[in-house]
Amino acid sequence: MNTVTHTEKLALLGGPKTIQSEFKRYNSIGAEEAQAAIKVIESGVLSQFLGSWHEDFYGGPKVRAFERQCAEYFGVKHAITVNSWTSGLIAAVGAIGIEPGDEVIVTPWTMSATATAILHWNGIPVFADIDSETFNLDPRSVEANITPYTKAIVVADIFGQSADMDEIMALAAKHGLKVISDTAQSPGAIYKGQYAGTLAHVGGYSLNYHKHIHTGEGGILVTNDDEIAERLQLIRNHAEVVVGDKGVTDLSNMVGYNFRLGEIECAIGIEQLKKLKGFVESRQSLAEALSDGLQGLEGLKTPIVRSDRTHVYYVYPMQLDLDLLGTTRDCICDALNAEGVSVSRWYQNIHLLPMYQRKIAYGSHGFPWASDICHRDVNYAKGICPVAETLNDTTYMGFGMCVYDLGFNDVALIVKAFRKVWAGLDQLRG
C-alpha cells in the first residue's frame, strides 16, 4: 500500500503532480485480429447479407461463425450479431412484441439508448430507481412502478455487475412481463453461475470500441427463445420484405432495418471472443488491487460486489461521503484530475434529459405522450428516482477502467494520488 508520509501540496494548488504522463490507451486489438481482417479483405466478401428470403439472409461465413461461437461461449441457443448495441436494443424491444402505448420500466442510470429503444416502437419509458450499492435497477422500485399498462422491463447491468435478476425475473413472471438485459458494459460477468445477459428473455453485449472486446462498432444479442431469435433476425434485415416468402404470419413490429454486421467485424470478433476471459480476469485483478490500496480512506466507498456474482469493471464506481470529507465532490475530482487520475463526477439521469422533460420525441406535438396511445400522464419530474439523482448530483465518482491499458504499477500510482489528495483534504476544505 502506498502512503503519504507528510502533507504535500496538492497539484491542484500548485504542488507536484503524482502521475506525470498519461496512461496507455486500452487497445484489445492485436496481430490476430489484423490477420483475420486481411483475410476477409483479400476474399473480397465484406458482407454476404441479402435483404430477401435466401440462404444469405443470415449473412456470410464469418457472421455465422461468430454467432455460433458466441452462442456456445455464453451458453445460449441463439446469438445474433448487429451493427451496434443501440441497434440490438431497438431490435430486442421490437422482438418481444411491444405495442404502441405499452409501458416499459427502465433504469435512469444508463446510456440513453437503453430508454430510447423503447420510444422507437412508440412504447412509453417508465423510470424506476436504482440500488445504491450496485447502481442497477432496484426490484422494489420496479414493482412500485408496474401498472396495468406495463409490458416489459429493460435492465442495465451497469459498470460491469449484474442486476438482481432472480428478483426481477420473478416480478416479470408474476405480472406476465418480458425482460431485456442491456449487458453492454458487462460481458463475461457471472450471476449465480450464469453469464450476465443470458438470464432475461433476451439480452446482449456491446462491441463498441471502448468495451472489453470490440469490433469498432457492433453488438451481440443472446436468447434461448426460438421465436424471439427469429424476430430479431427479421428486424435486423428488412423484415417487411422477408416475412411473406419465409411464411411468417405474425407481422407485428416487422418493420425491418439494416442492422447487419459485416464480415470484417465478425472476423475480428471471433478473435476478440477468444480473449474475453483473459481481459476480464486481468481487469478484476487490477480492480482488486485498487480496492486494496484505497482501503481506509475515510469518506470513500469503493465498489461493492455481491457474493453471488462477479464484476468485470467497465467502470470502477465509487461514492463519496461529503459530510465526512468536509468538502465537495467537485473539489475531490478536480484534485484527483490534477494529480493525473481522470475521474468522472456524474453518470446520467436519463429521465431529466430534455426529451423527457418536455415530452417531445416524434414531431413537435408531444408524440407519443400526448397521443391517444398513451394511457396516462407518466411522471418524469425530478424526485422520482432519488437514489440515482443524489448519486448523479453529489456523491458518485467513477474511474474508467476500460479506457486505459493499466498495469499494477499504474494502479500503485493511482493509489498514491488518492492518498495524497486525502492527506491534503484540509487544503481543499480551506
TrEMBL record:
SUPFAM superfamilies in the cross-refs: PLP-dependent transferases (SSF53383)
Q: Which molecular function GO terms apply here?
A: pyridoxal phosphate binding; transaminase activity
Q: Name one GO biological process term.
A: polysaccharide biosynthetic process
Q: Which CDD domains does the UniProt record give?
A: AHBA_syn (cd00616)
| Protein's name in the database | DegT/DnrJ/EryC1/StrS family aminotransferase
Q: Give TM regions.
A: none
PANTHER family recorded: DTDP-4-AMINO-4,6-DIDEOXYGALACTOSE TRANSAMINASE, TRANSAMINASE
Organism for this UniProt entry? Chlorobium phaeovibrioides
The reply on keyword Oxidoreductase is no
Q: Which UniProt keywords apply?
A: Aminotransferase, Pyridoxal phosphate, Transferase
Q: Which family does it belong to?
A: Belongs to the DegT/DnrJ/EryC1 family.
